[in-house]
Fold:
Amino acid sequence: MADNQRKDKQINIELGADVADGVYSNLAIITHSHTEFVVDFVRLMPGVPKAKVKSRVILTPQHAKRLMKALKENIAKFESVHGPIKDIEAPGLPMNLGGPAAQA
Structure:
């Protein structure tokens, strides 16, 4: 592919200061319908009985699958450098924390 064609296909992505700091989450809750996946990123704090959704991302099924593939590839790269990530079982949580129920 010629350099000019590559430049035409590049996407310029802006990361604003308000988003650049990110949002800490230690729990993700995923629900879906036949048209979308909803990922709620939650912050659970020890000793605090109420958890708060800090961010919600809504994806098409196609984008959800692309995200899954990208995460798998990046986890494999991470583990090849740093070793296996230990899978720690999360404490039992209610499956519905006030959000919509998953639909198939």
Remarks:
- Residues 22-82 form one domain.
- The mean pLDDT is 86.
